[in-house]
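Quick one - first record:
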Amino acid sequence: MINRIKNLLKEAQTLNSQAEARQAAIALMRITLQYACISLAEWLIKIRATSRSNTLPLITLNLNQLREPSDGTLVNVLAELLVAAEHYGWNGVSRPFWQPISSSCPCIRLSKTSNPNLQNVLREFVHLRNEGVEGHGLPGEFDPQAELDAVNLTIESLSQILPNISHNHENLILLMPDQTDYTLQLLKSYRGNLICYRKIKKGTAGNCIVYAQIQKSLFEREAVTYETKDVLGASDINDYPTYSIWPSFDDNWSPLALIPERLTRNFTGREKELNELKEWADDIDSRACMLFGDGGIGKTTVAVEFLHRILEGKINTVWKPELITFYTAKQTRWGLNGLEIIRTREVGVADAAIAIVRALESKPLTKDWYKSSSDLLIKQLTSYLQEWGIDRKSHLLVLDNTETMVSNAEDINALAAQIKDLSRKVGRVLLTSRRREAIEAQPIEIKPFDVDESVSFLRARAELLKRQSILQAGQATLRQYANKLANKPLVLEVFIQALDDPHLSLQRAFDRVLRMQRQDLGEFLYDDAWRRLSTNMKHLLLLMTRVSDIHDDLLLKLCCSIAEITVIEASEALEESRGIASITRFEDHLQISFNSEFLKYCENRIIPINGINYPMDSSVTKVKNRYNEFIRSNSTKIRDRVDKAYRHTYARAAWLAYKEQRFDDCELFYEEATVRDSTNGWLFDRYAYFLFSQSRLEEALDKSKKATELIKNDPDAWFTRGMIEARLGKTREALVSLRNAKDNGKSEHLCLLQQAYAYWEDAPPNKAMARVCIEESEKKLTSSDPYYLKHLSELRALQNRINIT
């Protein structure tokens, strides 16, 4: 079969007419996808039918979609079939579908994502076909080389699931993973020619009728109709999860529940959020609650943990629902294997309604359920549950990952109305979402762990999984890695999983996670949000990320003027999608800090508007120049003795955070600033002083040493280093550093004071030399020193400490 398609493909590549080349590409792509889908579907059905093992996963696939599929349906169904095949033991079969495409492939031009794969290309191929104008005798938007190359890539990527033509040229043979042959039932070959089917219609006695065309050549087709076994109708692959009676801590309460097992055995923190959930649960008149926060932050984990705790009595709620339903709309997950596709088809409230009935019935539903609109389905479900004795106040419905149920403003409004209807008629609704949706619900924000919670989580998981490198690491080291991983539970978990090799160091595991983050974490976190943004908002965000990592009021206004969007619109969009950036306000000053993963996600993206790709380099330069002029004219705002340290926006953000005593933010901004302005010795000196002020002396010394390497003749850098070394009891090193500070112009009385500290902190303390330095320092100190009283007070205090002990 592959050779047959490739021969037709070679013929298509010689066509002079673009319209004919487009038609040929579409026909060959459709045939390839049809055979791939039918082959996988029949294999899955065979495996399911011949194996009665309870260890086979329960997978729901609507194979009836294959009876009369569109090109777009084929792409989506193929993705679902590949995921199912992996679950059923065809290891690696899906890998070519989602692995990155080489930049040398012409078909990469069809994808608009930063990390294109075959699925991206196929979706865009279908989109271009649907948007084309071939019906008017024109080729439409057509890149012949790219589209024909896409057909070739599809053939190559799906080669192991494409059947071979039998020796009699009539049957199609699939080589299964166990290297045995399987003859397809639904599709055939006619004298070595392939077919393209239009419809598979249910017949009688377990048969079906296939309406198709024989593809004799690129443009010569012959209609054919034949009857065969209805494999799709005989399938028992559509197994559904069912409710079970769930015992609780209370002998009088055993609800019907459809909920997952706990997602972690080391649940950490979140006591405040769990208490808020308890308060909501006991407020019977409150119909809906929303857990919202960034992707990978642990919203689903909190929701599932809450369900288990109320059943166990660890959270004692007055409200005890008789039916508990958990339904997830999650489409992707990110872990040690990178981005994985869970579901390719978008689902909504209607799917959740059908899933409830299906789980209660434990069998396929009648067609009436599938024909109803969402509004009608909610009415049907309400009546159905009433037959079970379930009213709104006795049903807890958890809708997980609702952000994937919408793609634009109209969808949001529709979803809000449907959830409102659900909460009035079907049950009390607990939502999880990455966005703070405009839905009537009590909001509970799930934020990243604080750094101590992150360390507790790492140690607890390490204890369970025997990760010795974490168990042996110091508190400061784990705090450092936790902060670098943004204190996100998902990323922390992947970091732990990466340490499954006992010979792997923390740094190598961190580097591995960092590479994974760069590759596809952004796609997991932001694809759904990106689809919902307007074209102008996408332009604005791309422009902003090109201009700077951190924006204040002025930068935001400058970028908004270029993207032709109001500041209010921009602020609302950023507030809704909090995972994109953190927004802080202090004394009427705005600061927008883009998430590092979002910066990577936007790095190579463009947005076409009226045939022009945005953002334009000229716009980026224009905004930067205007802002730099503002900074130069307002440089006095940084009132620090070393204003050269704060030439980068992150450094300025660190300075402001320190003044406002937001010390966690200060450390984060200093860390980011030293990465981006890595040759700025004054910056490293200021970072060292900040760490010194927080009594984190070892870390402070590392930064201070970097400062003296970069600015070898700077007296303040050597003075800071000597001050830190003195407090650490590194007396010899401190004396050398302070001598360098004095030789380069630092006030002698200040250096003598720090020498006194160095002798005092020596082991054992050298009190005599400390007193000598104090006396000499006081002699050198004059009233002309602007900080005379402060320094004199410090001398007296140290002297008293020495005399008392």
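second record:
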Amino acid sequence: MKRNVLLWATLACALTANAQSPQDSIRLEELQEVVVRGVRAQKDAPFAVANIKKQELQQFAKSGQELPFLFSMTPGVLSWSENGVGTGTTYMRIRGAAGSRINVTLDGVSLNSPEDQTVFWANMNSYAAFLGSAQIQRGVGTSTNGDGAFGGTISLATAAPAYVPSLELSASYGSYNTYNVGAGFSTGLLWGHLIFNGAYHETATDGYLHGTSGRSGSYYGGLTWLGGNYTLSYKNVGNFEKTGQAWNGVTAGNDDATLMDDGIRTYKDMYARGLGRFNSLYEALVFDDNGWTFPKNANGNYQTARYKLDNGSLWEKTTDNFYHNHNLLSAAWRPSEHWSHNATLHYTYGYGYYSEFRPNNKFEKYGINASDAQGNTVKRSDFIRRKGLTQHAYGLVYNANFKSREWDVIMGLNLQQFRANHFGYLNYISARTGMATMQAPWSGSQYYDSDARKNDYSAFVKATWHVARAWDVFGDVQYRHVGYTTSGVNDKFIEQADGSFRNQQLDIDERYNFINPKAGISFHQGRHKAFGSVAYANREPERNNFTDNGNYPAPKAEHLLDLEAGYSYAGTNWNAGLTLYYMDYKDQLVQTGELSDIGEALTTNIRKSYRTGAEINADWSPLTWLTIGGNAALSQNRIKDFTEYIDDWDNPRPDDYDYRTQTSASNPNWKPTTAHYGHSTLAFSPSAILNGMADVHYRGFSAMWHTNFVSRQYLDNTDNKERSLPCFSQTNIRLGYAAKGLLGLKEVDFGVNLNNIFNRHYAASGWVYSAVSESSGYTSDKRYYQIGFIPMAGFTMMSNITVKL
């Protein structure tokens, strides 16, 4: 991969001698805009929008962090990473909606994994370096390509290639041995028509949580042919990652259930002493002559150790490994003043897996009946499993745009087909004394295999009518057809009457036809802007909504009615805006505490829920070199008429429990333990997210102050503070200096990122398990619970240097 980058750079240097000076680079910028116009909200559109420019993206790329951390400076966005430093496995929410409800496109092509319906940001490291712009639409927004937007839409656009020859080198290094290196080049315009540009960036870190070290990178290569009123381009965008995982987080409970680095065992102790860096996927109990033990050091304090294998070696860590390669062949054509067209053929290949040590697991989890040398049944052992998938996605995106003095009409077509294979192997089964002696038949064997197909076809028409000088009327309607099938055997097993186990059989064949209409009106005169809109959206279930349900009835599609209104004013040296919204959900899929017949947490359609709130933004520039600004997202996120199902250790669910009748053949009078709530708060939906910023820019010097506050997040849907994450606030500072002409170079930029400068220790996300047991003193009012915290690092620093030739 690195050889390819060097080849690109060498070719760039060889060709720059033939480069010509640009006559009109605006042509290329305008034609690049044609590529993304179909999925973006245009100026004065009646939606809540945040736009991020090229300079911000390229500056952020030097931090090594993933894009959600840049987006979190805009209203209502929350981001976090498993390793605590902002690289690798990273997640985000918009208005409380998770990644599977956020539509993401690159040059109009959907980046969401069609089955999981989310974007895995670890597979997009340093994409900011070769982007020209990004737009975030909050709420349903305008019609786009790919999965339905139930929280927001993110449109990414690659940068138009430079007309003049250029070469840029960058390097960053900071806390936890985090580094980012990169290079980008453009040949400039060759022979009056051709531009070749490319980039390579790589990030690595030891991570804040133990065992979360990782390395990831991205590469970009583009060929652009510029005609008089058209462009032809081929873009190859790829990425790789090997990332240590920590999805269990750091665990604590109201019982003696947690081991920290220094023996901390309680929720309050953990927060008081900084949460810690213990990762149960990397460090855990040790099996020795005394059985499973927590080892102690010479001082008698608890210490951690990684899992030991039969040969005495230590299991290294759980890693996620993935490779992605996107290919986009595009044509943008502007035949007249009024018409423009864009067509893109695309193909994406993906392959990935993770390997995980599973200590003291039941054989039945893998469909195995095992016995020792004496013929006694053996129930548990240690396993290493490898779970992975291959993906192929290909399709066509076409947009046509008509613009006149009164009308702006965009027609779009998206045809995408997706094919995937899911597989799992058992690469290790412990054969230690007292465990299985029948290792050979299964070690290294495949224990599940399934195929999936998804066809996603959509078409839309959206139009803006400039009905008067200050008034626009907007209308948008999209038809979307989705077909999803999956077959084979899953990685869950069901016990048979004879005591044997069989894989869960997958036979899913679902079709959805959605109509997604939107309408709005906007006013813009002088310094005043106002808008109002209504949008209706539909969304199909994710793969896990089907596979984890077992024999429970198939999940239904979700529906959302989104009402938005906003006003903004642009003063001489200040701006302010307000957006109000009400998002009314029908059949939203949430976890209720129920377990399926295969033991998975069910995501169940609930009849009514909503999100409502206000988003405020303002900035003031009292001096030419100083801007002070901020934004606030204040919301209420509620479930109406919610029934929670509670795990009751004194009243366990019968094995033959039938979810359709809520009875069991052996005990037809059995009833699940439940709690009912008239109104409760949706999990992971903070009621307040605040951002404050100060930007100083004087000659070559720049400085940015950013303070972020996130209010309490409930980890389940019960409004219980004990099962929640406390509010947190943290502050970052970025300093930079650009020296032009230094040592004969075009520009040299120096910078440093100081993150979480007050060394706050907090968790940005997590999970919870709770149960009742009257016999053990755990009542409905005082349950047993265990919380998994996803902590972020304290103070970190990242310095960088960029050389432009």
